[in-house]
Amino acid sequence: MPKLKSKLPLLGHLMPDIALFVILFPGVCLARQLINQDCGSTFCGNLNISFPFRLKNQPPQCGLYDFELECENNNSTTVVARKGKFFVQQIFYENYTIQMVDTSLDTDDCNSLPLSSLYYNYYMYVVNCTEPINSSLYIEASRCTTKSNTSSSLPTSHFYFLDAKTRPSDFNQACTIEAEAPIMVENITGMSTPDIYKKLLEGVWVKWSRCQYQSCYKPDVLKEM
Ligand SMILES: *[C@@H]1O[C@H](CO)[C@@H](O)[C@H](O)[C@H]1NC(C)=O
Ligand SMILES: *[C@@H]1O[C@H](CO)[C@@H](O)[C@H](O)[C@H]1NC(C)=O
Ligand SMILES: *[C@@H]1O[C@H](CO)[C@@H](O)[C@H](O)[C@H]1NC(C)=O
Ligand SMILES: *[C@@H]1O[C@H](CO)[C@@H](O)[C@H](O)[C@H]1NC(C)=O
Ligand SMILES: *[C@@H]1O[C@H](CO)[C@@H](O)[C@H](O)[C@H]1NC(C)=O
Ligand SMILES: *[C@@H]1O[C@H](CO)[C@@H](O)[C@H](O)[C@H]1NC(C)=O
Ligand SMILES: *[C@@H]1O[C@H](CO)[C@@H](O)[C@H](O)[C@H]1NC(C)=O
C-alpha cells in the first residue's frame, strides 16, 4: 500500500449532509420547519435568497441554518463547505438546484488552484507533490505558462489533478491529497489543463432535498450536463 497522506479529515460534505440529516430524522425536519419560517425573499446582488436558504445576517427565525449563505458586499453569495468555500452562482427553486463554483478559483491568478472540497458524484483529486511526476495520469494543475522562480532553499511543490478512480497503486508517495474538487465530468483522464479549468469554472449543480409535510425526498446529485 502506498503511503497516502490525506489532509482531508473526511470527504467534504455540504448539501448531501443536510439531505442525509433530514432523511434520517424526518421528525426533526418537521420540527425545524415549525420553528423556522419563510420570511419572503431577500437579495444578495441579484440572487434571490428564499426559504429554505437564509443569509447569515437575517433575523434568526428566517430559513434553515443548515442552508445558511453569506452575502459579501451585496455582491457575491458564498457557502462554506467542509473544506473551503463556494460561490453560489444560481439557485433554481423550481427544481431544487443550486449552482456553485469554488471561490479559490480566482481567475486573475494563474497560480490559484481548486482547493475546496465537496461531496459530489464526480470529483478529482488535487495533489501536491514534492517532485515532478512524469505520468499521463498526473495532469498538470498549474495554469501558469512560466513558472515563478522559487528560491532553491524552499521545497518545491508540483500540483496535479488525478482522476477520482485512480488506483491506489498509481498514487505516488511524493504526493499528498489537498482536495477532492467537484467537477461535472465523469472522468478527467486525457483532458488538458485548460479543459479542466473550463469545466471547473462552469461550476457544479447540486440538488437539495425537498422536505415538506413530513415527507423528505432523497436528493440526487445531478449527472453530467
Ligand atoms: C442588496 O442590495 C439590494 C438593492 O440595493 C437590497 O434590496 C438588499 O437588501 C441588499 N442585500 C443585502 C444582503 O444587503
Ligand atoms: C462587486 O464585485 C466586483 C468584483 O467582482 C468588485 O469589483 C466590486 O467592487 C464589487 N462591488 C461592491 C459594491 O462591493
Ligand atoms: C424569489 O424566489 C421565490 C422562490 O422561487 C419566489 O417565490 C419569489 O417570488 C422570488 N422573489 C422575487 C422578488 O422574485
Ligand atoms: C433547473 O431549472 C433551470 C431553469 O429553469 C434550468 O436551466 C436547469 O437546467 C434545471 N436543472 C435541472 C437539473 O433540471
Ligand atoms: C504543498 O506541500 C508543501 C510541502 O511539501 C507545503 O509547504 C505547501 O503548503 C503545500 N501547498 C498547499 C497548497 O497545500
Ligand atoms: C516522461 O516519460 C516519457 C515516457 O513515459 C518519456 O518519453 C519522457 O522523456 C519523460 N520526460 C521526462 C521529462 O522525464
Ligand atoms: C477514463 O478515460 C480514459 C481515456 O478516455 C479511459 O481510458 C479510461 O478507461 C476511463 N476510465 C474510466 C474509469 O472510465
Characterization of the model:
The chain has 225 residues and is an alpha+beta fold. It has two domains: 5-15 and 106-202, no CATH class; 17-103 and 204-221, no CATH class. The protein is built from three helices and 14 strands. The longest helix has 10 residues, at 15-24. It is elongated, with a radius of gyration of 19 Å. The two termini are 36 Å apart. The model is unreliable at 1-34 and 213-225 (pLDDT under 50). It is found in: Membrane. Residues 39-102 form the Wall-associated receptor kinase galacturonan-binding domain. InterPro entries: WAK_GUB (IPR025287).
Q: Taking Cα atoms only, what radius of gyration do you get, to the nearest Å?
A: 19 Å
Give the count of structural domains. 2
Portion of residues within helices: 10-25%
Q: Label the overall shape.
A: elongated
Order of helices and strands: HHEEEEEEEEEEEHEEE
**Order of the strands making up the biggest sheet:** 3-4-5-6-7-12
Q: How many helix segments? A: 3
How much is the average pLDDT?
78
- Global structural class: alpha+beta
Percentage beta strand: 25-35%
What's the N-to-C terminus distance? 36 Å
Which structural traits does this protein have?
3 helices, binds 2-acetamido-2-deoxy-beta-D-glucopyranose, 13% helix, elongated, six-stranded mixed sheet, alpha+beta, 225 residues, disordered N terminus
Short description:
With 225 residues, the protein is of the alpha+beta class. It contains three helices and 14 strands.
